[in-house]
Amino acid sequence: MVDANTESTNPQIRLRVEGNVGSGVEYLCFQVESKVSATGVTQRVQLFNYEMGEYVDVDSRSATLSDRVVYIAVDGDPDPYIDGSGNVKAHILFDDVGVVAESWLASFDHVIWFAL
């Protein structure tokens, strides 16, 4: 699901990604390759923590104008980010923190879950 919020003071694009990694996971990593069409955009990645019942920030950085691959490994025990059926959820958010262009785009080449 892609959601564009242009009504707020900081326009935002949000992509929700869901998957299933099975059971017995000891290592969980999330990978995204993306870019934006204007400077002044921050990329954030949130993973859903099932124990807390909410999305938590796991990465934040300036978005780039050319494709960049970002790997985010869950520190420690991945169990809080995996429900009893092996489901996982993430948000990739692009926040306008100073874009000089009137409109801008975010592009995603791929989004991948790795579980071992």
Describe the structure.
By secondary structure, the protein is mostly beta strands. The chain has a single domain (2-115), classed as Jelly Rolls, CATH 2.60.120. Helix content is 0%, strand content 57%. It is built from no helices and eight strands. A five-stranded antiparallel beta sheet has the order 1-2-7-4-5, with no helix packed on it. Strands 6-3-8 form a three-stranded antiparallel beta sheet, with no helix packed on it. It is elongated, with a radius of gyration of 15 Å.
User: On the 0-100 scale, what is the average pLDDT?
Assistant: 91
Spatial order of strands in the largest sheet = 1-2-7-4-5
First-to-last CA distance? 26 Å
CATH architecture: Sandwich
User: Rounded to an integer, what's the Rg over CA atoms?
Assistant: 15 Å
Portion in helices = under 10%
H and E order: EEEEEEEE
Strand content range = over 45%
Overall outline: elongated
Number of helices: 0
When the domains are counted, the total is 1
**CATH class descriptor name:** Mainly Beta
Q: And the CATH topology?
A: Jelly Rolls
Coarse structural class: mainly beta
Regions with little confidence, pLDDT below 50 for 5+ residues: none
- How many strand elements? 8
Largest beta-sheet details: 5 strands, antiparallel
